[in-house]
Each structure stands twice: as C-alpha cells, then as structure tokens.
Amino acid sequence: MNKTKTDSGISYLDAIREAQARALRDDPRVFIYGQDVGAFGGAFKATKNLAQEFPGRVLDSPISEDAMVGLAVGAAIEGMRPIVEMQFADFSTVGFNQIVNQAATLFWRTNIPCPITVRLPFGGTEGGGPFHSQCIEAIYAHYPGLIVLTPATVEDAYAMLLEAVALDDPVIFCEHKFLYRHLKAEKLPSEALPIGKARIAREGRDLTVVTYSAMVHEALEAARELSGEGWEIEIVDLRSVKPLDTDTVVASVARTGKLLCVGEAWPWGGVTAEIITRVTSEGYGLLDAPPQRLNAKDTPVPYHPNLWAAHRPTARSVAAAARNLLRQ
Amino acid sequence: MNKTKTDSGISYLDAIREAQARALRDDPRVFIYGQDVGAFGGAFKATKNLAQEFPGRVLDSPISEDAMVGLAVGAAIEGMRPIVEMQFADFSTVGFNQIVNQAATLFWRTNIPCPITVRLPFGGTEGGGPFHSQCIEAIYAHYPGLIVLTPATVEDAYAMLLEAVALDDPVIFCEHKFLYRHLKAEKLPSEALPIGKARIAREGRDLTVVTYSAMVHEALEAARELSGEGWEIEIVDLRSVKPLDTDTVVASVARTGKLLCVGEAWPWGGVTAEIITRVTSEGYGLLDAPPQRLNAKDTPVPYHPNLWAAHRPTARSVAAAARNLLRQ
Amino acid sequence: MLQTVLEPGTHENAAIFREKYLAAHRFMLLARLLDDKYAALYRAGKIRGGVFLGRGQEALSAAIGVTLKKTDVFAPLIRDAAGRLAFGETILDAVRTYLGSSLGPMRGRDGNVHRGRPMEGQLPMISHLGAMISVVNGILLARRFKKISGTVGVACIGDGATSTGAFHEALNQAAVEKLPLVLVIADNQYAYSTPTSRQFACDSLADKAAGYGVEVQSVDGTDLVVCLKIVSEAISRARKNQGPQMIVAKLLRLCGHGEHDLAEYVDSQLKNSPIGRDCLKIAEEFLLRQKWLDNSQLADLRNEIIREIEETVAQVQREPSPDPFAEEWRAMASEHLSETHEQNEN
Amino acid sequence: MLQTVLEPGTHENAAIFREKYLAAHRFMLLARLLDDKYAALYRAGKIRGGVFLGRGQEALSAAIGVTLKKTDVFAPLIRDAAGRLAFGETILDAVRTYLGSSLGPMRGRDGNVHRGRPMEGQLPMISHLGAMISVVNGILLARRFKKISGTVGVACIGDGATSTGAFHEALNQAAVEKLPLVLVIADNQYAYSTPTSRQFACDSLADKAAGYGVEVQSVDGTDLVVCLKIVSEAISRARKNQGPQMIVAKLLRLCGHGEHDLAEYVDSQLKNSPIGRDCLKIAEEFLLRQKWLDNSQLADLRNEIIREIEETVAQVQREPSPDPFAEEWRAMASEHLSETHEQNEN
Ligand SMILES: Cc1ncc(C[n+]2csc(CCOP(=O)(O)OP(=O)(O)O)c2C)c(N)n1
Ligand SMILES: Cc1ncc(C[n+]2csc(CCOP(=O)(O)OP(=O)(O)O)c2C)c(N)n1
Ligand SMILES: [Mg+2]
Ligand SMILES: [Mg+2]
C-alpha cells in the first residue's frame, strides 16, 4: 500500500472529508462543530460542502476551544457523536482541560461513555512556524481514557476516522497537514485493519523502523535508499499511538534484531520513548544493538524552511540513523 | 540524608515557605501571584505570613490560571522573577497554553529569558480523587523550553526552589502534597547539589531504582525491606526530570546491571519511559536483565483510600517488582 | 411579601406556591442537616479529603431543585446539596459518595461533591471551575438535534468561577446558540479566602449579562420567597425558548470554604449585614408566620430527617468499601482496545 | 468634523493634530503598500506559510501607533502593520521576519506577524488568540512594582478573539489590578469566515465593558480623525491611572483572512455599507480637503515609500537565510542545563 504522489485521485484530505460525509450520512447522531467548518468548509476544506449537504449538522463555533470540547462532551452524554475540528492541533492546548479532565475521565468516573472525536490538523509544513506545526500526540496519550490515532495513509485517514466516530471513547484524531495534499489514493478502502493494530508498511530483514503519520513516508524513502546499499528495512506504521500495538512491534524486532523509532514530535516522553520502553522491557533479548530514537529537535518548530527541514527527521536523517545502527 | 518522620523540625512545606521568604528578602524582583496566597497564606499555607512580611509583593489572583501565567511572563519580560502558585497541579491544565506556548517559547523565539517559577502542589493523597492528585510532570517535560523539578526532600524543596527562582528559564516546580507534612528535617541546607544533578539516595549493589519525589521514600522503604532479604538496592533520586541526569543513572546501572524505574505518574510516555529509553539507547550493554517500570495504573486517580493505595506504586509493589527483577 | 410572588390573589396559585415552598424548605433543612452530619463525620476522621458545605446557600439551591423538572439538566456545584436533593438525588447517593462506597454512583472512584448520574440529568462536576457549563450546553444542543423541546439546563457557579475562561466561553456559546441555559451565580462574597474585590471590578456580576446578550435577574439569596420567584421566572423564560438566562444571587457563605477552613477572613460587617442572615432561619420564620407549619411540626420534620440521615449513614458504613482487586482498572469504554501493561499489575 | 476633534479653535492644538494626522496617514500608506508587497511576494512563492494583511484597519492601527510613546507597551495582532510601524518597528524588521532572514528579530525561528522586540515594548504575538493581553498586564504590573508610572499598554484583538477565555481572564485581571491597559477591539465583522452573528449575541462588543468595570468608547474604524480622537482620549485616561480602557472599532476587513483566502463569504451589503469604506481613501480625501497635502505631494510620498520598500526587500533578499548547522538548537536560556541527545544530531 506504498503511496506515491500522483496528481489525480483521492487525497488524504479528501478521505477525511469523505469519512465525515459518510458518518453524517450513516449516523444521525453525528454532527461537526468547529471554527469555520460550516459554509466555509474549514480552514483546510476538510468539511467542504458538508454544511450544504447536511443542513444544520455542521456548526461554526466561536473561538472557544474549551467550550467547543465541553459542548461535545455534553452532546455525547445525550447520545450524539460529535466531531470537533480544532483549526490547528496547536490550539487544542486551549481546550486541553476539557479534553484531558472532562472527556477522558467521564467513562471511568460515571460508566457513561464519551464518544467524541477531536480532529487535530497537526504536524509541520514549510513556513508553519512554532504555533502551526506541533505534534502533541504524546501529551494526549499520557492521559488515561483517550484514544490517539495517527493515520499515515489516505486509506487509514478514511477508515480510521470512521472507526473513531463509531468508538465509544474520546478519540484524538491526529491528521497530518503535510499529508493533506501530498498523498493520493485511487479509491477509498472497503475494509481496513482495526484500530489498535499496527501495519507492516514495508517488510525487511535488517532493521525495524517504528514510526507513524508523515514520518512513515520519510522512513519508506530512507528504506528505498538503503535497499540500494543492500539493507532491507522493515517499517512498522503504528497507526494508533494509544492503544499501541506492542505485539506487532516486538514481532518485527524479533525478526530484525534492531530498532529505530522515528517521530516528528519532541523527544522527551514521546511515542519513540514509549516504544523503546515496551520493546526493551517486554522483548529485551530480541535486540542485538541498542534501540535508538530519532525525533524533532527539542526546540519549538522553526518557521524558515531551512531550519524546519533540519528540525524534523527526514529520509536523509532516518537513513543516517539506520546506517549507524546497521553498522553495529 | 535519609528522612524519617519526626514530629518536630522543619517540614517540606516549611521549606517551601522559607525558600519563598528568602527569595522575597534577597531579590526585589521576586513576587508571588496565585489564588489565596495573600493574607490567607495559600490553600496549603505555603505562603503563610508572606503577604504580611512583604507588603504588596504577595498578590491574590482571580481564578484565572491562563491570565496568571500570562501575567507572570509579562512581568518576567519586564525584569521581575514571579512565582505563580497553582492551587493544585491539576488546575494548571487551564493555564497550560500560556505555560507551554507563551513561557516555554519566549527565549527561543526572542532571545529574551523568561524567569518564572510555576509552583504545582501535586501528587496523590488519601481522598484527593481524580482532580486533586495528578502527577503531570511529563506533560511539561515534553515541551521544549521548560525546566521541570521534583524535589523529594525537605532540603531539596528549599534549595531547588531558591535555584528555580534564580534560573533564567520557566520552571515547573512540582512539590508533592503528600510530602508537605510527612517529611521533616533538622535544619535548612546551606548548600545543595545543583539542578540537573541526580542524587544517590541509597547506595546499593544489586539493582538500581530510579525515581523522584514521593516515590523516593516508597523506594527507600522497599530497599530496607529487601536488605533484610540480602539484597542491596541503589536508589537514584532524579530531583530534576528535565533536564535529566542520564550520566548518574547510567553510572548506577553500570554498577548494578538492573534497572527499575518508579513513577507515581501514568505510564504512557512518563519519566520512567524516558529513563528506560536513555539507559537502553546510551548504556545498552550495562543491563543484565530487562529494564522495568512501575507506575500508577492507567486510569484517573481514585478517591477511596483503598483504591488509591492500589493505584499508585507503594513500598510493597516496588519491593515486589524489584524481587521479580532480582530473580532474573 | 407573598403577594409580590403570586399573580395577585389567585387561590390555586397560592396553594401551588405553598406546596412548592414547603418542599423547598424541606430540602433546605435536609441539606443543612446532612451537611452537619458530613461535618461531624469529617471531624471524626470518617471522611478523607475535602468536605464542602452549602450553609447559607440552601434557599437559592433548593429553589432551583424544586423548580426543575426531572427531565431537565442540572449541573450543581460544591454548595448545592439542597438543589441536588430537590432535583432528585437520594441521600443514599450523597452519603455513599462521601464515604466512597462501591455501591454509590461514583463507586469510590470519585467522591464528596464530585457525584451525579448523567443519565438522570444530574451532572457530576469535575473540579475545574466553569467547566460544566459548556457540558450543559452540549446536552441542550443535543436535545435540539433530537427535537426534544421544553427542557432546560441549570448550571451553578460561584463569584470566583466567573473569572474563569471556561465560564466566559460557555456563556457566550449558549448565547450564540440561544440555548435554554439558566446560569445561576451564587455571589457569596468569597472565593475560598478571596473577597470579590480581588475577583472582579464591576459593580455587580449582573453587569456581565449585557455583554453576552443574555437576560439577568438579581436576587436576595437569603430569602426563599424571592429565590423561588426569580428562579421560576428565569427557568420558564428559558423553557419558552427566550434564550439563556442569568441569575445573580447575593448571599454569604456561612461556613468555611471547606470544613478544614476556619474562615477567619470573613468580614464581620458582612456577617452582620442582611446578606449574612441564615436563609433557613428566614424561611422557617416565614412559614411559621404563614402558619403553614407550627413549631412542633417543624421539630417533628427535623427529627424525621435526622432519623433518615442517621439510618442512611449507618447503612452505608456497613457497606463494603471498594476492593482494589475486584476493581476493573480500565479508563476506556472500548474494552477491546484497553491495554494492560506490566506496570498495571502492582 | 475636525472641530469635533480639537478643543475648540486653539491654534497650537490644530498644528499638533495636523502633524499627528499626517504621521498617521504616512504609516497607513506605508502599511498598505508594504501589505501589497507581501501579497506580491506571496503570489510569487517568495513567502512560505501565511500572509495576513491589515487592509481597511490602518486608520485604527496607525492611530494607536502614533499616539503611544516609545516607552509604552504595544501588543499588536495580525492586522496591525500600520500600528507596529508607527510605534517604531522598522520596515527592515517586518520584511526580514516575513522572509525569515537570520538577521531579523526572530532570526527565521518565527515568521510573518509573529514578530517583535520585547525590550522595546513591541510584543511578539503567539498565535493563540487572546494570549497576549495578560502578558501586557504583567509588564504593566511589573512597572508598578518598579515605580515606573505614566506608561500604558495597548493590546489589540479582533471580534473573534473576544470569545476566548484568555481575553476574559486577562481583561478582568487588568480591571482588578486597575492597570493602565487599553484594549482595542477591531470588530471587522468576521473571524476568518465566521460572521459576528456566530461569534457573540450582544448588540455591540462595547456592551462587554460594564461587566468588567472598564470604560469603553466605540469608534468608526474607517475614519482616521475619530480614531485619533478616541484612541488618544483612551490612552490618556489610562495614563492618568483612570483604569483599563476598552475601544471597540467597527470596520470591515478589506482582504481575505490571509492571502490564501478569497473571502467570497463577505456580505456585499457590508462592503457597500459605511464600514466597508476604505479608511485610507477617506484619510487622504480629508487631508486633501484640509490642503495639508496636494495630489502631487501624495504621489511623491507614495513613490518615496514604494522605493523604500523595494530597497528593503531587495536588501533582505540578498541576506543569508538561516543556516541549520550554525543554528544553536537550544530552547533554554540556561546553557548549563541544556541537554543534547543523539536525536538532536540529525
Ligand atoms: C480552574 C480552577 N482553579 C482553582 C480551583 C480551586 N478552587 C476550588 S473552589 C475555589 C473557590 C471557588 O470560589 P467560588 O467560585 O466563589 O465558589 P464558592 O466556593 O464561593 O461557592 C477554588 C479557587 C478550581 N477548582 N478550579
Ligand atoms: C485560540 C485560537 N484558536 C484558533 C485560532 C485560529 N485563528 C487564527 S486567526 C482566527 C480568526 C480571528 O478572528 P478575529 O479575532 O476577528 O481577528 P481578525 O482575523 O478578524 O482580525 C482564527 C480562528 C487561533 N489563532 N487561536
Ligand atoms: Mg464564592
Ligand atoms: Mg474579525
């Protein structure tokens, strides 16, 4: 299912739009709430024409992230399945309290499920800068009660968003802005792996790269480069960072003996640290070299494209890190 | 410097109060801002009499965590050294955006330092429940630009708070509510380890327990129990979780060959995961058994003392986890 | 004064009012006596964590509870024991939560004032002030989607909570969506130890209403008669889809912030001012003047309630406390997605 | 109309006003032409990321900039190019930030409207709306601590940002502390695509002032004359320690939210209404009527400014872009505490 850029076809963004259209069509409990998501179709056009196709079910919200999430939780209690769009993931910090303390605790405290989906357009793009580029999936994954999804393909963007809306838990749906128009598929999937299962994005022999979202494609490019040098890299696309499919990761490491975790997020306590911790504590003997992680640098995300390109992992830096490991 | 409970002496809470008194006395740039910190002396009495001793420099704030932190950042830009008290760490989620996006990014963006100290009374106590017990140090440590401190002793509470106020960066000062009255010392320290250095809280031979804050004392108790069984446990008190003293941890693991990381926080992406990642990637060969972590369960913190006692690690569960490792 | 409450001299109204008043008074008394019991249990070390009482706020709170219909939504706050009971919470739910019984609605997972039954419209507050208002908005919006009309939602907050961003975002949201929200602000002069002079600079919190485009009424929170009048009017306006309503009640917290707090900071001038009056005493004087009850009936009522409370507490104290080994340590509803790591096997 | 602005017929006032007006007009024109240049660079693919213009808001913004003293504090927002320049920002700082030059104040680390020099009182906004207001409060409070009096702080926000909790908490905080804050709300009828009807339900945003206990003035944002008057009055009231001031300007955004946005959603009725007028055109008609400049002088001014902009852009385009290898990848000021992990050696 290795994606390559084509000019025609269905984009990752289309998939997200189509998934929401289908959810609205199939389930009267679904509605969408967010800034500019109505007639305008959203800052990224992820809800294009949905307000017109589904009158009264796609609502523009005030610039009130806290109240946006709070409202969604209330609607969920009353049996609805709201989808909240944050205009950028970076602004979800303003709704943070309602997400981690209201939505995430409801089921555990009351036994009443909280089926809300919070869509976070996240990740870096050229010129995005410190406040329109962040990858904060780890922040949400740290809290009990949340499901955190990070689709890397057009097919997953579609299937996982549909499944997210169907789940009885609050889902933080991290959709990568860089992939919005970068990825194309021929058609939408009829079925997909269930949430919670990772995917082998590329089979290999010599080293396992565990990653997710946009970094899957950097890793794939690195793998193509390295196969020219005779190395076969296996790539695990996590798809879901919470829950996290430890079994698939450990099984892959059992085959390759080497682990490189790649994340576009900051290193401290990120997905890469969680993976390394699970592999070393649960699959210790399987490694024949130290596990490594490759993350963004531990600074805010820079604005200038030159700095940005050096701040986040790229195919080049993934390949370099892989070579270091392979030489051991 | 192994603390034991005594009825007289200086408590951890006294130390925090004294450190603030001294900071106010020695540095005219220091002021304190928070709910009920003024004449009342704070919900935990950590600012007792400071408003009276330092008129006009200890200000009651409205219930506005976002604006509390924003104001502190502005005052810091103007050359002050504000101390912000959150009434409970759990409520800092409301001020989250100003902490992680305003305070944490200021220096990197503008080269102007942001010397604010945000005091978070954190951690579990009997009957605290889901919203008065949280350990969210990892949330802050994930963001670039923040320093996150977790003193475990009366002496560190005092010395580290003073150093925090003197630092040119935003400091998240995690002071454990359970330790407030539980710990006593004879006198305040005249000097201390610098921030960024971990402390060997107990020397040992057979296994390294890396932990911080209140869990240091659970680990010490477990170590005493295990020494009765002939095992000598080394305990590393991190003191600071960001920056994190990898060298001291790795050196200890080099001596013992075994690593157990203990945190009162939730497991996913926590301090324990960060430690295991660093040790396995930087000190791989040193381990002769899989590194393990012991954390709170991945649910909100329960209210009832029975549930709470089972939710967080205790001397008993630390000892049990250590035995499992020692038997390998 | 009664005449100011009733449509001039219509007899059935008078009868209805009398009934409602007596019901409200009963819940005020029940809440007061239940609060007394919590305080005693706390001092006896039988309750861990905080104990937060509603003394002095029973009239306002009870007025809400007796006015709401069971199909409405109620988001009470820490001082709303009276309103909760009047809205339908059982003494058993309240006591079980304070004592952490595994049989209570929160099953020992959450406690004290953090309790409720969402499916019955009793919202279980989280601690973060202001956070429940937008949740009420969501329920009301959902009902609009579901074509359920004629129900309202009441959210209670204090003077201090008006300083939260959550309060602002949620009230504005309700106004934009024209939701049948009634926001009741109990201005009890303090937020913990903080006087209103350090909390806001407007003359009255009622001045905030115009900035949201919502209707507002101020009320003397110590007088059950006017509380019933103003609360009923606001709730019926909301029910008639006249948009969000705000009520600002002036009163005084007649206890500490929590039972750990001696509240020496409370200004004695306020204590001796009209808002320092005990709303329960005033309510009882009124019903005695009206001859709706006499002193011996009041005493009987009191004893009956005390018996009920004592029996409930005794029953709950015999109930099993939660068993960590029987406990299902799972924060997610999706059982198939829940992970158990080694560290979860303490 | 000039008479409404000046103390009746005092000549030196008239002279002062003329000077101030001409300065303001110059910054309006400069900002407009600089915006045009950004737009051109954006279309040419020379600017990555967003480009946000202030068309239609120059009168209000310039009025702030020319009224403030250099020792004051200014927290502009995305549409305040005019105010920034008038307050003292150089064209060079502005262009360098948009082009990400390593020599600019943000050194390529942040860009476009996210620029400033905190030590000069030019606060560099973070994107999160409403977040800068409390930062201004902090500077003003610090100055009170430092016994610096007579300086004020201006924070600008839009109609949409009034829905943020940050706006509410910060304005209330300023009112409680009686800080010399002037909060200027540019009600340009839209927040991105969202009309004010989906943003708030009060008649005018000025209705919010009473709820905070702050003074408020409404102003026609298309008319430089009245903008100068109202802004000067509010700033001098704040300077005289008369407490926080609010200004609500009605105007229309005469561009897309960003240059990527065609803004087809803007109501043509609004475009054709008085608030749809171009403040720059009105300002120039006025000064021509006053004979303060004639058409040829205006043309010369325009050409001179265009030359300055073109030279600046050309210079910046020759400047080195940031070098990731020379870059110090450190988020903390405390060098001795900074960690470098392997993953930082990409
Ligand atoms: C966001 C937030 N900050 C701080 C607190 C801590 N806190 C709990 S109650 C309280 C005072 C509330 O005062 P008010 O709103 O007037 O209600 P009252 O207690 O007077 O009924 C505070 C500060 C909290 N619960 N939530
Ligand atoms: C907290 C937050 N939420 C969302 C955004 C995304 N955003 C940027 S500008 C904007 C519209 C702002 O409208 P307004 O305040 O009226 O200012 P204007 O653009 O009209 O000048 C939005 C929603 C943001 N920057 N911050
Ligand atoms: Mg109060
Ligand atoms: Mg606007």
Description:
- Chain A has 328 residues and is of the alpha/beta class.
- Chain A has 12 helices and 14 strands.
- Chain A has helices at 12-26, 50-53, 65-77, 96-110, 137-141, 154-166, 177-182, 215-227, 246-256, 271-282, 305-311, 315-326, and strands at residues 10-11, 30-34, 58-60, 81-85, 117-122, 147-149, 171-176, 184-185, 199-202, 207-211, 233-237, 240-242, 259-262, 292-294.
- Residues 1-6 of chain A have low confidence and may be disordered.
- Chain C is built from 12 helices and 7 strands.
- In chain C, helix 2 (11-43) crosses helix 4 and helix 2 (11-43) runs antiparallel to helix 11.
- Chain C is globular and about 60 Å long.
- Chain C starts with a helix and ends in a 28-residue tail after the last helix.
- In chain C, the strands form 2 sheets. Chain C has a 5-stranded parallel beta sheet, sandwiched between helices. A two-stranded antiparallel ribbon of chain C has the order 4-5.
- With 346 residues, chain C is an alpha/beta fold.
- At the A-D interface, strand 14 and helix 11 of A face loops of D.
- The structure holds thiamine diphosphate (2 copies) and magnesium ion (2 copies).
- One thiamine diphosphate (TPP) sits between chains C (78-79, 127-129, 157-161, 164, 186, 188, 190-192, 253, 257) and B (35, 63, 65, 87, 91, 94).
